[in-house]
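Entry 12.
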Amino acid sequence: MSTCEFESLEKTLETHIPEEELKEVKRILYGRETMPLDLPSCAQEAASKRDFELKGYRFEAAEEQLRPPRRTRVGLIQNRIVLPTDAPIMDQINAMHSRIGEMVEVAAMCGVNIVCFQETWTMPFAFCTREKDPWTQFAESAQDGHTTRFCQELARKYNMVVISPILEREELHSTMWNTAVVISNSGNVLGISRKNHIPRVGDFNESTYYMEGDTGHTVFQTQFGKIAVNICYGRHHPLNWFMYSMNGAEIIFNPSATVGALSEPMWPIEARNAAIANHCFTCAINRVGTEHFKSEFTSGDGKKAHHDFGHFYGSSYVAAPDGSRTPGLSRTRDGLLVVEMDLNLNRQISDKWSFKMTGRYTKYADDLYNAVGHDFIPNIVRE
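Predicted 3D structure (tokens):
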């Protein structure tokens, strides 16, 4: 079975492991069981008709005496590109808008409050090619571009916060960024969060196209909780998650585009680790499919030139601060994951484990300050 045919780890486990053993396997792999979320039949029917997977789960928190539950529903959308990579640019963008629009409609049927799309969702992940044309033509204004206006309509129509990661063009200096536009459920642009860390590994030649972000670790106060967006490669940097958490994020979204040969063993671990370490919920979103490009490109590794750089393996999931996580979406299909969470769980787990309270951050701040200095001498004891 090829990588792009393997549907999911969960399906394989359920097929081959006896039911009683499976409970223990899932407990070890996923922590506390996340209960299925009862989704409307109309949503199930619409997802089936539109050919995408729909799953729902819920995280519960203990009942408190002084605080009511703070339940919110998030929607994670993963999808493949709709048209070939050499189709006219506006046709590709409009096709993606149409596809995402019908998936968001189903999210609204499921009562989703905050929806997040995958990294640079309006275009192929063409940065592997190192060609500037035509890919830079997909870049748009974060404030009033075609895609932002489309997402504003969705937000108003469905009373939903929309996180829209795009290739941004800032016209004043003609600078491009990998940017998540956060749109309030009122339809207003709440702000932007630019990708902090740019990979320089394999075919991920992203520094050819856009710069490291300059928006820091912004957290957005929404009607449904405080959220942040840690774009793709930033998930490999623990301090990146940490600083969003330090600024008060209750839910951190990680819209990504990553292929199996490179990072799949890390995928189920990193967002879950971040949820545990930072006493917050994390949402990992990855695209699916294999994207083919007309021009061959090489990876600088001595191997033959190729027209694609691998299979995007989906597997989107949500992790909770207690270390539990949902099963992932398919590795091969478009999908919508709907997750209900009680944000009270963040403080409950913080009170239990006290990672932040016992963090000794002043000490680390001093040590880091010294470590980045030109005259730094490592503290190593030798015989």
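Annotation: The mean pLDDT is 95. The domain at 34-297+304-371 is CATH 3.60.110.10 (Nitrilase/N-carbamoyl-D-aminoacid amidohydrolase).
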